[in-house]
Backbone:
């Protein structure tokens, strides 16, 4: 191993653990790859749920990416506060008080084009009434959320034409404007590229057909926002389709393992320490459930400087692992690893460190980790 591997920092002794360290050179390279695959930064609507950081929004704006997808009102408010952002899509259908919060954001940031996904006519009516009662000049944009196989949210494409949902949207203009179709296929994380491409094309075919039918009825073009990170490059080959990868900004061990054809590099490293040596060939790390996403089976993290490590037990603050190299580790030694799933891992950290030029240079607050910023 190189005496200075890419993930090691000169000043690691100064960094509290457990923490997440973001590597600037790798993030910037990932962003350039995103733009190259898209062919045009204006095709991109990157999902901000992965990182929740205004600093990374600003880096993307600097590359000409000005449209973003959000999962929460707090994420949307964070993005709206970054200069140069033009459009924000709320990619979780707003219900209850979220409708008023979303409308208040639109009023507060009139220079941004606000939009949301919907799959139910009752939500359309609630949004129409809320928008009509406020002073927003441009219509709020709506995207029909399509279920193309994940069976989580959305309406199947073959149920949209003639549906009450479509009629309610057309009847809500000009307060609301139907902007397009949202087709997320997060279930297609298939390792084999040919099979992933085949299933992606199969799932997308009804979306293209539906788009043509609605455009003929409306007499104007509709947008389509398609895919996530696994199918990003597949959808990029289509004409007139916008793209919404998210994990591509930071990448993680899970996608690096499952999707070797995609050219992104893990850029977020967990820094933990040995806090006990409970038995021969075992160490306990301060890398519990509260520091690395634990919603999946092990491996939940892939170790970079603890060879052949296997998790033995995992609890709120502790991770006990076994490794042939464990007996050589001392209390306080730094152990680096890659999260298997980076998105929920980021949400566990109040702050992350930025690494550049061989050092961790500053701590950033994970602003949109909160469910509420001011609205």
Residues:
């Amino acid at each position: 191993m190189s005496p200075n591997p890419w993930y090691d920092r000169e000043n690691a002794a100064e960094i509290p653990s457990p923490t997440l360290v973001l590597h600037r050179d790798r993030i910037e390279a990932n962003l350039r790859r995103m733009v190259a695959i898209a062919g045009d930064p204006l095709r991109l609507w990157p999902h901000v749920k992965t990182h929740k950081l205004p600093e990374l929004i600003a880096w993307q704006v600097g590359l000409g990416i000005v449209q973003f997808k959000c999962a929460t009102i707090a994420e949307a408010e964070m993005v709206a506060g970054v200069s140069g952002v033009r459009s924000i899509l709320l990619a979780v259908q707003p219900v209850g008080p979220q409708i008023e919060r979303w409308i208040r954001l639109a009023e507060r940031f009139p220079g941004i084009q606000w939009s949301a996904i919907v799959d139910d006519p009752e939500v359309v009516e609630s949004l129409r009434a809320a928008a009509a009662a406020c002073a927003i000049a441009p219509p709020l944009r709506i995207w029909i959320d399509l279920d193309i196989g994940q069976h989580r949210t959305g309406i199947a494409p073959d149920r949209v034409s003639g549906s009450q949902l479509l009629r309610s949207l057309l009847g809500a203009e000009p307060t609301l404007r139907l902007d397009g179709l949202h087709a997320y296929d997060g279930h297609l994380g298939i390792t084999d590229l040919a099979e992933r491409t085949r299933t992606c094309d199969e799932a997308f075919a009804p979306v293209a057909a539906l788009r043509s039918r609605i455009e003929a009825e409306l007499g104007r073009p509709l947008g389509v926002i398609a895919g996530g990170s696994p199918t990003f490059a597949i959808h990029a080959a289509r004409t007139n389709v916008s793209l919404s990868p998210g994990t591509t900004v930071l990448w993680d061990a899970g996608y690096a393992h499952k999707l070797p054809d995609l050219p992104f590099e893990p850029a977020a490293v967990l820094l933990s320490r040995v806090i006990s040596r409970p038995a021969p060939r075992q160490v306990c790390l301060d890398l519990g459930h509260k520091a690395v996403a634990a919603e999946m089976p092990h491996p939940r993290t892939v170790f970079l400087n603890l060879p052949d490590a296997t998790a033995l037990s995992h609890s709120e603050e502790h991770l006990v692992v076994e490794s042939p190299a464990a007996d050589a580790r001392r209390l306080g030694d730094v152990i680096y690893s890659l999260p298997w799933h980076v998105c929920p891992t980021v949400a566990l950290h109040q702050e992350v460190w930025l690494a550049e030029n061989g050092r961790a240079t500053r701590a950033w607050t994970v602003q949109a980790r909160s469910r509420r910023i001011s609205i």
